[in-house]
Amino acid sequence: MKNVIIVGAGFGGISSAALLAKNGFQVTVLEKNESPGGRSSVYSEKGFFFDMGPSWYLMPDVYENFYSEFDQKAEDFFLLKKLDPSYRIFSYDEAVYDLSANPEKNYQLFESFEPGGGEKLKEYLKSSRELYEFSIKEMLYKDYNSILDLLSGKLLLKSLKLHLWENLEDYINQQFESDQARKILKYAIGFLGGAPQNTPSFYHLVSHADLTMGVWYPQGGMRKVVKTLYELAQSYGAVFRFDEPVEKLEIQDKLVKKVVTSEGSYAPDLVIVTADYPHSELDLLTPDHQTYSQKYWEKRTISPSAMVVYLGVDIKVGKLIHHNLFLNKDWETGFDYIFDPEKAEWPEDPSYYVNVPSKTDESAAPPGSDTLYLLIPLAPGMVDTPELRETLYNHILDDLESKIKLNIRDHVQVKKLFAINDFKERYNAYKGTAFGLTHTLRQTALWRPAHLSKKAENLYYSGQYTHPGIGVPMVMVSSQIIVQDIMKRRDLMKDRN
Protein backbone atom coordinates (compact mmCIF):
# COMPACT_ATOMS: atom_id res chain seq x y z
CA MET A 1 0.00 0.00 0.00
CA LYS A 2 3.02 2.28 -0.29
CA ASN A 3 2.51 3.62 -3.81
CA VAL A 4 -0.68 5.70 -4.15
CA ILE A 5 -2.19 7.14 -7.31
CA ILE A 6 -4.79 9.89 -6.81
CA VAL A 7 -7.04 10.76 -9.75
CA GLY A 8 -8.01 14.43 -9.71
CA ALA A 9 -6.40 17.48 -8.09
CA GLY A 10 -9.50 19.18 -6.72
CA PHE A 11 -9.98 19.75 -3.00
CA GLY A 12 -10.51 16.02 -2.51
CA GLY A 13 -7.32 15.12 -4.35
CA ILE A 14 -4.97 17.68 -2.84
CA SER A 15 -6.25 17.17 0.71
CA SER A 16 -5.91 13.37 0.38
CA ALA A 17 -2.44 13.82 -1.12
CA ALA A 18 -1.27 16.02 1.75
CA LEU A 19 -2.57 13.64 4.43
CA LEU A 20 -1.14 10.50 2.83
CA ALA A 21 2.23 12.03 1.95
CA LYS A 22 2.58 13.23 5.54
CA ASN A 23 2.02 9.65 6.68
CA GLY A 24 4.78 8.23 4.52
CA PHE A 25 3.00 7.17 1.35
CA GLN A 26 4.48 7.80 -2.09
CA VAL A 27 1.75 9.90 -3.72
CA THR A 28 1.28 10.82 -7.37
CA VAL A 29 -1.70 12.97 -8.34
CA LEU A 30 -2.95 12.83 -11.94
CA GLU A 31 -5.03 15.78 -13.16
CA LYS A 32 -6.64 16.27 -16.57
CA ASN A 33 -6.56 20.07 -16.38
CA GLU A 34 -3.67 22.51 -16.27
CA SER A 35 -3.63 23.36 -12.55
CA PRO A 36 -4.80 22.21 -9.10
CA GLY A 37 -8.23 23.09 -7.74
CA GLY A 38 -10.76 21.06 -9.71
CA ARG A 39 -13.99 23.02 -9.55
CA SER A 40 -12.00 25.62 -7.59
CA SER A 41 -9.97 26.57 -10.64
CA VAL A 42 -8.92 30.13 -11.43
CA TYR A 43 -9.76 32.25 -14.45
CA SER A 44 -7.83 35.48 -14.97
CA GLU A 45 -7.77 38.09 -17.70
CA LYS A 46 -6.67 41.75 -17.89
CA GLY A 47 -5.86 41.85 -14.18
CA PHE A 48 -9.22 40.39 -13.07
CA PHE A 49 -9.07 37.18 -11.01
CA PHE A 50 -12.05 34.84 -10.64
CA ASP A 51 -12.51 31.84 -8.37
CA MET A 52 -14.38 29.73 -10.91
CA GLY A 53 -16.22 27.59 -8.36
CA PRO A 54 -16.75 27.78 -4.58
CA SER A 55 -16.79 31.33 -3.24
CA TRP A 56 -18.11 30.92 0.33
CA TYR A 57 -15.80 30.07 3.23
CA LEU A 58 -18.11 28.49 5.80
CA MET A 59 -17.61 26.06 8.68
CA PRO A 60 -14.17 27.36 9.74
CA ASP A 61 -14.01 24.70 12.45
CA VAL A 62 -13.85 21.99 9.78
CA TYR A 63 -10.92 23.71 8.07
CA GLU A 64 -9.22 24.03 11.46
CA ASN A 65 -9.72 20.34 12.12
CA PHE A 66 -8.04 19.53 8.82
CA TYR A 67 -5.04 21.81 9.33
CA SER A 68 -4.61 20.48 12.87
CA GLU A 69 -3.61 17.17 11.27
CA PHE A 70 -0.41 19.01 10.35
CA ASP A 71 -0.13 20.81 13.71
CA GLN A 72 -1.10 24.03 11.93
CA LYS A 73 -3.98 26.52 11.84
CA ALA A 74 -5.73 27.94 8.79
CA GLU A 75 -4.35 31.39 9.56
CA ASP A 76 -0.82 30.02 9.37
CA PHE A 77 -1.50 29.84 5.64
CA PHE A 78 -3.83 32.73 4.82
CA LEU A 79 -5.52 35.72 6.44
CA LEU A 80 -9.17 35.16 7.30
CA LYS A 81 -11.62 38.05 7.44
CA LYS A 82 -15.12 37.72 8.87
CA LEU A 83 -17.55 39.49 6.55
CA ASP A 84 -20.05 41.93 8.01
CA PRO A 85 -22.65 42.05 6.61
CA SER A 86 -22.37 38.36 5.86
CA TYR A 87 -24.49 38.79 2.75
CA ARG A 88 -27.18 41.01 1.26
CA ILE A 89 -30.56 39.94 -0.06
CA PHE A 90 -32.41 41.78 -2.81
CA SER A 91 -36.08 40.80 -2.67
CA TYR A 92 -38.53 40.76 -5.57
CA ASP A 93 -40.48 43.58 -3.85
CA GLU A 94 -37.42 45.89 -4.04
CA ALA A 95 -36.66 45.48 -0.33
CA VAL A 96 -33.00 44.96 0.60
CA TYR A 97 -31.93 43.05 3.72
CA ASP A 98 -28.49 42.63 5.23
CA LEU A 99 -27.74 39.48 7.20
CA SER A 100 -25.27 40.53 9.85
CA ALA A 101 -22.32 38.85 11.57
CA ASN A 102 -24.01 40.11 14.76
CA PRO A 103 -26.87 37.73 15.71
CA GLU A 104 -28.70 40.49 17.59
CA LYS A 105 -29.13 42.47 14.39
CA ASN A 106 -30.54 39.39 12.68
CA TYR A 107 -33.05 38.92 15.50
CA GLN A 108 -34.16 42.52 14.97
CA LEU A 109 -34.44 41.92 11.22
CA PHE A 110 -36.65 38.86 11.68
CA GLU A 111 -38.75 40.76 14.24
CA SER A 112 -39.46 43.27 11.46
CA PHE A 113 -40.70 40.42 9.26
CA GLU A 114 -43.31 39.10 11.71
CA PRO A 115 -44.39 39.43 15.36
CA GLY A 116 -42.08 37.38 17.54
CA GLY A 117 -39.75 36.77 14.59
CA GLY A 118 -36.65 37.49 16.66
CA GLU A 119 -37.50 34.88 19.29
CA LYS A 120 -38.45 32.41 16.59
CA LEU A 121 -35.04 32.88 14.96
CA LYS A 122 -33.31 32.39 18.32
CA GLU A 123 -35.07 29.07 18.82
CA TYR A 124 -34.44 28.03 15.22
CA LEU A 125 -30.73 28.77 15.52
CA LYS A 126 -30.56 27.05 18.90
CA SER A 127 -31.88 23.89 17.26
CA SER A 128 -29.57 24.42 14.30
CA ARG A 129 -26.56 24.72 16.58
CA GLU A 130 -27.48 21.60 18.54
CA LEU A 131 -27.78 19.56 15.36
CA TYR A 132 -24.58 21.02 13.92
CA GLU A 133 -22.56 20.17 17.02
CA PHE A 134 -24.11 16.70 17.21
CA SER A 135 -23.34 16.12 13.54
CA ILE A 136 -19.71 17.23 13.89
CA LYS A 137 -19.17 15.03 16.96
CA GLU A 138 -21.18 11.95 16.09
CA MET A 139 -21.80 11.75 12.34
CA LEU A 140 -19.57 13.83 10.09
CA TYR A 141 -16.21 12.09 10.45
CA LYS A 142 -17.57 8.54 10.43
CA ASP A 143 -17.99 6.24 7.47
CA TYR A 144 -21.22 4.31 6.96
CA ASN A 145 -21.09 0.79 5.57
CA SER A 146 -24.28 -0.72 7.00
CA ILE A 147 -27.53 0.31 8.65
CA LEU A 148 -25.97 -0.62 12.00
CA ASP A 149 -23.38 2.12 11.54
CA LEU A 150 -26.15 4.67 11.06
CA LEU A 151 -28.54 3.59 13.78
CA SER A 152 -26.27 4.07 16.76
CA GLY A 153 -27.76 4.54 20.23
CA LYS A 154 -26.98 8.25 20.31
CA LEU A 155 -28.45 8.78 16.87
CA LEU A 156 -31.64 6.96 17.81
CA LEU A 157 -31.99 9.13 20.91
CA LYS A 158 -31.63 12.19 18.69
CA SER A 159 -34.07 11.00 16.04
CA LEU A 160 -36.96 13.16 17.20
CA LYS A 161 -34.90 16.35 17.18
CA LEU A 162 -33.39 15.41 13.85
CA HIS A 163 -36.88 15.55 12.28
CA LEU A 164 -35.72 12.68 10.13
CA TRP A 165 -38.90 12.21 8.12
CA GLU A 166 -39.83 15.86 7.63
CA ASN A 167 -38.59 18.03 4.78
CA LEU A 168 -37.02 21.43 5.24
CA GLU A 169 -39.85 23.21 3.44
CA ASP A 170 -42.50 22.00 5.90
CA TYR A 171 -40.28 22.46 8.92
CA ILE A 172 -39.49 26.12 8.19
CA ASN A 173 -43.09 26.88 7.22
CA GLN A 174 -44.16 25.62 10.65
CA GLN A 175 -41.66 27.87 12.42
CA PHE A 176 -42.19 31.10 10.45
CA GLU A 177 -45.13 32.86 8.82
CA SER A 178 -43.55 35.62 6.75
CA ASP A 179 -42.42 35.09 3.19
CA GLN A 180 -39.18 36.98 3.89
CA ALA A 181 -38.10 34.81 6.83
CA ARG A 182 -38.99 31.61 5.02
CA LYS A 183 -37.05 32.51 1.87
CA ILE A 184 -33.91 33.55 3.74
CA LEU A 185 -33.75 30.36 5.76
CA LYS A 186 -34.65 28.08 2.88
CA TYR A 187 -31.99 29.61 0.67
CA ALA A 188 -29.29 28.24 2.98
CA ILE A 189 -29.94 24.77 1.61
CA GLY A 190 -28.46 26.04 -1.66
CA PHE A 191 -25.05 25.49 -0.07
CA LEU A 192 -25.84 21.76 -0.29
CA GLY A 193 -27.20 21.87 -3.83
CA GLY A 194 -30.72 20.94 -2.77
CA ALA A 195 -34.32 22.12 -2.70
CA PRO A 196 -36.32 22.66 0.51
CA GLN A 197 -39.00 20.25 -0.69
CA ASN A 198 -36.66 17.24 -1.01
CA THR A 199 -34.07 17.93 1.71
CA PRO A 200 -34.50 16.45 5.22
CA SER A 201 -35.19 19.15 7.78
CA PHE A 202 -32.21 18.22 9.93
CA TYR A 203 -30.09 19.99 7.32
CA HIS A 204 -31.33 23.25 8.80
CA LEU A 205 -28.07 22.85 10.73
CA VAL A 206 -26.47 24.77 7.83
CA SER A 207 -28.12 27.93 9.21
CA HIS A 208 -25.80 27.64 12.21
CA ALA A 209 -22.87 27.79 9.79
CA ASP A 210 -23.85 30.99 8.00
CA LEU A 211 -25.97 32.88 10.57
CA THR A 212 -24.13 31.99 13.79
CA MET A 213 -20.57 31.02 12.89
CA GLY A 214 -20.47 33.63 10.15
CA VAL A 215 -19.22 33.97 6.60
CA TRP A 216 -15.46 34.34 6.15
CA TYR A 217 -13.12 35.27 3.34
CA PRO A 218 -9.57 33.97 2.91
CA GLN A 219 -7.49 36.87 1.57
CA GLY A 220 -6.58 35.87 -1.97
CA GLY A 221 -9.83 33.92 -2.43
CA MET A 222 -10.53 30.20 -2.44
CA ARG A 223 -7.67 29.90 -4.92
CA LYS A 224 -5.37 30.82 -2.02
CA VAL A 225 -6.73 27.87 -0.02
CA VAL A 226 -6.07 25.60 -3.01
CA LYS A 227 -2.53 26.94 -3.33
CA THR A 228 -1.72 26.32 0.33
CA LEU A 229 -3.00 22.72 0.24
CA TYR A 230 -1.14 22.08 -3.01
CA GLU A 231 2.11 23.41 -1.53
CA LEU A 232 1.48 21.51 1.72
CA ALA A 233 1.14 18.23 -0.19
CA GLN A 234 4.31 18.97 -2.17
CA SER A 235 6.24 19.78 1.00
CA TYR A 236 5.71 16.17 2.09
CA GLY A 237 6.78 14.80 -1.28
CA ALA A 238 3.53 14.41 -3.23
CA VAL A 239 4.04 14.63 -7.00
CA PHE A 240 1.50 16.31 -9.28
CA ARG A 241 1.14 15.68 -13.00
CA PHE A 242 -1.13 18.09 -14.86
CA ASP A 243 -2.62 17.84 -18.37
CA GLU A 244 -2.61 14.06 -17.93
CA PRO A 245 -6.18 12.71 -17.97
CA VAL A 246 -6.78 9.17 -16.74
CA GLU A 247 -8.33 7.01 -19.45
CA LYS A 248 -8.75 3.61 -17.83
CA LEU A 249 -8.48 1.69 -14.57
CA GLU A 250 -7.53 -1.94 -15.22
CA ILE A 251 -8.71 -4.41 -12.56
CA GLN A 252 -7.55 -7.99 -12.08
CA ASP A 253 -8.24 -10.27 -9.12
CA LYS A 254 -10.19 -7.50 -7.34
CA LEU A 255 -7.25 -5.08 -7.49
CA VAL A 256 -6.53 -2.06 -9.66
CA LYS A 257 -3.34 -3.23 -11.37
CA LYS A 258 -2.87 -0.39 -13.83
CA VAL A 259 -3.89 3.26 -14.20
CA VAL A 260 -3.76 4.21 -17.87
CA THR A 261 -3.41 7.89 -18.82
CA SER A 262 -2.92 9.92 -21.99
CA GLU A 263 0.84 9.80 -21.31
CA GLY A 264 1.38 6.20 -20.23
CA SER A 265 0.48 3.96 -17.30
CA TYR A 266 1.13 3.46 -13.58
CA ALA A 267 1.17 0.34 -11.40
CA PRO A 268 -0.29 1.43 -8.04
CA ASP A 269 -0.70 -0.28 -4.71
CA LEU A 270 -3.68 1.94 -3.96
CA VAL A 271 -5.90 4.25 -6.03
CA ILE A 272 -8.05 7.14 -4.80
CA VAL A 273 -10.42 8.63 -7.34
CA THR A 274 -11.54 12.19 -6.56
CA ALA A 275 -12.72 12.94 -10.08
CA ASP A 276 -16.45 12.94 -10.84
CA TYR A 277 -17.79 9.66 -9.43
CA PRO A 278 -20.20 8.68 -12.26
CA HIS A 279 -17.56 9.48 -14.89
CA SER A 280 -14.98 7.43 -13.00
CA GLU A 281 -17.24 4.40 -12.78
CA LEU A 282 -18.91 4.55 -16.19
CA ASP A 283 -15.99 5.73 -18.33
CA LEU A 284 -12.87 4.38 -16.61
CA LEU A 285 -14.11 0.90 -15.63
CA THR A 286 -15.62 -1.98 -17.58
CA PRO A 287 -19.25 -2.76 -16.62
CA ASP A 288 -18.30 -5.86 -14.62
CA HIS A 289 -16.06 -3.72 -12.38
CA GLN A 290 -18.55 -0.92 -11.76
CA THR A 291 -20.04 -0.69 -8.27
CA TYR A 292 -22.75 1.62 -9.63
CA SER A 293 -24.27 1.10 -13.07
CA GLN A 294 -25.71 3.59 -15.53
CA LYS A 295 -29.18 2.70 -14.24
CA TYR A 296 -28.13 3.58 -10.67
CA TRP A 297 -27.01 7.08 -11.67
CA GLU A 298 -30.11 7.69 -13.77
CA LYS A 299 -32.24 7.11 -10.66
CA ARG A 300 -30.30 9.55 -8.45
CA THR A 301 -31.41 13.11 -7.72
CA ILE A 302 -28.66 15.24 -9.20
CA SER A 303 -27.97 18.69 -7.84
CA PRO A 304 -28.21 21.71 -10.11
CA SER A 305 -25.91 22.78 -12.83
CA ALA A 306 -25.46 26.51 -13.35
CA MET A 307 -24.55 29.26 -15.70
CA VAL A 308 -21.71 31.22 -14.19
CA VAL A 309 -20.96 34.69 -15.56
CA TYR A 310 -17.48 36.10 -14.98
CA LEU A 311 -17.45 39.86 -15.51
CA GLY A 312 -14.65 42.35 -15.08
CA VAL A 313 -15.92 45.95 -15.09
CA ASP A 314 -13.93 49.20 -15.12
CA ILE A 315 -16.05 50.84 -12.40
CA LYS A 316 -16.80 50.24 -8.72
CA VAL A 317 -20.28 48.77 -8.42
CA GLY A 318 -22.30 50.43 -5.67
CA LYS A 319 -25.17 48.81 -3.73
CA LEU A 320 -23.50 45.39 -3.92
CA ILE A 321 -21.39 43.90 -1.14
CA HIS A 322 -19.20 40.80 -1.22
CA HIS A 323 -22.08 38.25 -1.29
CA ASN A 324 -25.48 39.16 -2.77
CA LEU A 325 -28.61 37.06 -3.30
CA PHE A 326 -31.39 38.11 -5.66
CA LEU A 327 -34.57 36.22 -4.79
CA ASN A 328 -37.50 36.24 -7.17
CA LYS A 329 -41.17 35.99 -6.24
CA ASP A 330 -41.99 32.64 -7.82
CA TRP A 331 -39.73 30.64 -5.53
CA GLU A 332 -41.34 27.21 -5.77
CA THR A 333 -41.54 27.23 -9.57
CA GLY A 334 -37.83 27.98 -9.69
CA PHE A 335 -37.05 24.72 -7.92
CA ASP A 336 -39.40 22.85 -10.26
CA TYR A 337 -37.41 24.11 -13.24
CA ILE A 338 -34.28 22.61 -11.68
CA PHE A 339 -35.39 19.34 -10.05
CA ASP A 340 -38.41 18.20 -12.08
CA PRO A 341 -37.15 16.64 -15.35
CA GLU A 342 -40.54 17.18 -16.98
CA LYS A 343 -40.48 20.92 -16.25
CA ALA A 344 -36.76 21.55 -16.72
CA GLU A 345 -36.02 24.49 -18.99
CA TRP A 346 -33.81 27.55 -19.13
CA PRO A 347 -35.43 30.06 -16.71
CA GLU A 348 -36.76 33.48 -17.60
CA ASP A 349 -36.95 35.01 -14.11
CA PRO A 350 -34.65 33.02 -11.82
CA SER A 351 -33.19 33.76 -8.43
CA TYR A 352 -29.43 34.22 -8.68
CA TYR A 353 -26.26 35.03 -6.75
CA VAL A 354 -23.67 37.77 -7.29
CA ASN A 355 -20.22 37.63 -5.73
CA VAL A 356 -17.98 40.73 -5.76
CA PRO A 357 -14.69 39.59 -4.18
CA SER A 358 -12.97 42.88 -5.02
CA LYS A 359 -15.12 44.50 -2.30
CA THR A 360 -12.91 42.65 0.20
CA ASP A 361 -9.80 41.77 -1.78
CA GLU A 362 -8.02 44.46 -3.82
CA SER A 363 -5.98 41.81 -5.63
CA ALA A 364 -9.12 40.50 -7.38
CA ALA A 365 -9.40 43.46 -9.79
CA PRO A 366 -7.37 46.39 -11.15
CA PRO A 367 -7.62 49.72 -9.28
CA GLY A 368 -11.01 51.40 -9.72
CA SER A 369 -12.55 48.18 -11.05
CA ASP A 370 -14.68 45.32 -9.75
CA THR A 371 -14.74 41.57 -10.34
CA LEU A 372 -18.26 40.11 -10.57
CA TYR A 373 -19.21 36.44 -10.42
CA LEU A 374 -22.88 35.71 -11.18
CA LEU A 375 -24.35 32.24 -10.65
CA ILE A 376 -27.76 31.20 -11.99
CA PRO A 377 -28.89 27.64 -11.07
CA LEU A 378 -29.96 25.43 -13.99
CA ALA A 379 -31.35 21.94 -14.31
CA PRO A 380 -28.61 19.41 -15.12
CA GLY A 381 -28.61 17.63 -18.45
CA MET A 382 -30.37 20.30 -20.51
CA VAL A 383 -29.36 21.40 -24.00
CA ASP A 384 -26.78 24.16 -23.73
CA THR A 385 -26.17 26.57 -26.62
CA PRO A 386 -24.49 29.99 -27.01
CA GLU A 387 -27.89 31.47 -27.86
CA LEU A 388 -29.51 30.15 -24.67
CA ARG A 389 -26.60 31.45 -22.60
CA GLU A 390 -26.73 34.91 -24.14
CA THR A 391 -30.49 35.16 -23.67
CA LEU A 392 -30.20 34.26 -19.99
CA TYR A 393 -27.25 36.60 -19.56
CA ASN A 394 -29.28 39.52 -20.91
CA HIS A 395 -32.25 38.66 -18.66
CA ILE A 396 -30.00 38.65 -15.60
CA LEU A 397 -28.18 41.85 -16.54
CA ASP A 398 -31.51 43.61 -17.14
CA ASP A 399 -32.68 42.57 -13.68
CA LEU A 400 -29.40 43.36 -11.94
CA GLU A 401 -29.04 46.79 -13.55
CA SER A 402 -32.61 47.72 -12.69
CA LYS A 403 -32.19 46.74 -9.03
CA ILE A 404 -28.88 48.44 -8.39
CA LYS A 405 -29.66 51.38 -10.71
CA LEU A 406 -26.41 51.12 -12.64
CA ASN A 407 -25.42 50.44 -16.25
CA ILE A 408 -22.99 47.54 -16.12
CA ARG A 409 -22.89 46.48 -19.78
CA ASP A 410 -21.09 49.60 -20.96
CA HIS A 411 -18.26 48.98 -18.51
CA VAL A 412 -17.55 45.29 -19.18
CA GLN A 413 -13.88 44.63 -19.89
CA VAL A 414 -13.95 40.86 -19.39
CA LYS A 415 -16.86 38.52 -20.02
CA LYS A 416 -16.95 34.74 -19.85
CA LEU A 417 -20.01 32.48 -19.69
CA PHE A 418 -19.56 29.00 -18.22
CA ALA A 419 -22.46 26.55 -18.23
CA ILE A 420 -23.63 22.94 -18.53
CA ASN A 421 -21.41 21.87 -21.42
CA ASP A 422 -18.36 23.41 -19.75
CA PHE A 423 -18.97 21.49 -16.52
CA LYS A 424 -19.12 18.32 -18.61
CA GLU A 425 -15.99 19.09 -20.62
CA ARG A 426 -13.73 20.58 -17.95
CA TYR A 427 -14.74 18.43 -14.97
CA ASN A 428 -16.34 15.36 -16.63
CA ALA A 429 -19.39 16.31 -14.55
CA TYR A 430 -22.33 13.93 -14.86
CA LYS A 431 -25.12 15.75 -16.76
CA GLY A 432 -23.12 18.93 -16.23
CA THR A 433 -23.92 19.11 -12.52
CA ALA A 434 -22.10 21.85 -10.63
CA PHE A 435 -22.24 20.04 -7.28
CA GLY A 436 -22.92 16.28 -7.45
CA LEU A 437 -25.67 14.40 -5.61
CA THR A 438 -28.17 16.48 -3.70
CA HIS A 439 -28.95 15.65 -0.06
CA THR A 440 -32.26 13.85 -0.08
CA LEU A 441 -32.99 11.39 2.73
CA ARG A 442 -32.17 8.49 0.41
CA GLN A 443 -28.89 10.18 -0.55
CA THR A 444 -27.56 10.88 2.94
CA ALA A 445 -24.82 9.07 4.93
CA LEU A 446 -25.17 5.32 4.26
CA TRP A 447 -27.17 5.96 1.08
CA ARG A 448 -24.52 8.03 -0.68
CA PRO A 449 -22.06 6.23 -2.97
CA ALA A 450 -19.46 4.32 -0.97
CA HIS A 451 -15.89 5.41 -0.32
CA LEU A 452 -14.53 1.92 -1.03
CA SER A 453 -15.26 0.10 -4.27
CA LYS A 454 -17.13 -3.18 -3.98
CA LYS A 455 -15.24 -4.54 -7.00
CA ALA A 456 -11.63 -3.59 -6.17
CA GLU A 457 -10.08 -3.81 -2.71
CA ASN A 458 -7.55 -1.04 -3.38
CA LEU A 459 -9.90 1.50 -5.01
CA TYR A 460 -11.29 4.40 -2.99
CA TYR A 461 -13.48 7.36 -3.90
CA SER A 462 -13.53 10.76 -2.22
CA GLY A 463 -15.42 13.93 -2.96
CA GLN A 464 -18.83 15.55 -3.10
CA TYR A 465 -20.71 12.40 -4.17
CA THR A 466 -19.66 10.48 -1.07
CA HIS A 467 -20.42 11.02 2.63
CA PRO A 468 -20.61 13.63 4.08
CA GLY A 469 -21.48 15.42 0.83
CA ILE A 470 -21.40 18.70 -1.04
CA GLY A 471 -19.17 21.68 -0.27
CA VAL A 472 -15.46 22.24 0.23
CA PRO A 473 -15.46 21.44 3.98
CA MET A 474 -17.40 18.23 3.34
CA VAL A 475 -14.99 17.15 0.60
CA MET A 476 -12.04 17.67 2.94
CA VAL A 477 -13.79 15.57 5.60
CA SER A 478 -14.38 12.85 3.01
CA SER A 479 -10.62 12.75 2.43
CA GLN A 480 -9.96 12.51 6.16
CA ILE A 481 -12.40 9.59 6.43
CA ILE A 482 -10.74 7.53 3.71
CA VAL A 483 -7.22 8.29 4.93
CA GLN A 484 -8.23 7.13 8.42
CA ASP A 485 -9.45 3.86 6.89
CA ILE A 486 -6.29 3.46 4.80
CA MET A 487 -4.12 4.02 7.88
CA LYS A 488 -6.06 1.37 9.83
CA ARG A 489 -5.62 -1.11 6.99
CA ARG A 490 -1.90 -0.37 6.81
CA ASP A 491 -1.52 -0.88 10.58
CA LEU A 492 -3.36 -4.20 10.35
CA MET A 493 -1.05 -5.34 7.57
CA LYS A 494 1.99 -4.38 9.67
CA ASP A 495 0.62 -6.33 12.64
CA ARG A 496 0.09 -9.41 10.48
CA ASN A 497 3.62 -9.21 9.17
TrEMBL record:
It holds the Pfam family Amino_oxidase. It comes from the Archaea. NCBIfam families: crtI_fam. This is Phytoene dehydrogenase-related protein. Residues 12-486 form the Amine oxidase domain. GO terms for biological process: carotenoid biosynthetic process. Keywords: Carotenoid biosynthesis, Oxidoreductase. The keyword Oxidoreductase applies. Pathway: Carotenoid biosynthesis. InterPro entries: Amino_oxidase, Carotenoid/retinoid_OxRdtase, FAD/NAD-bd_sf. GO terms for molecular function: oxidoreductase activity. The keyword Cytoplasm does not apply. Gene3D superfamilies: FAD/NAD(P)-binding domain.
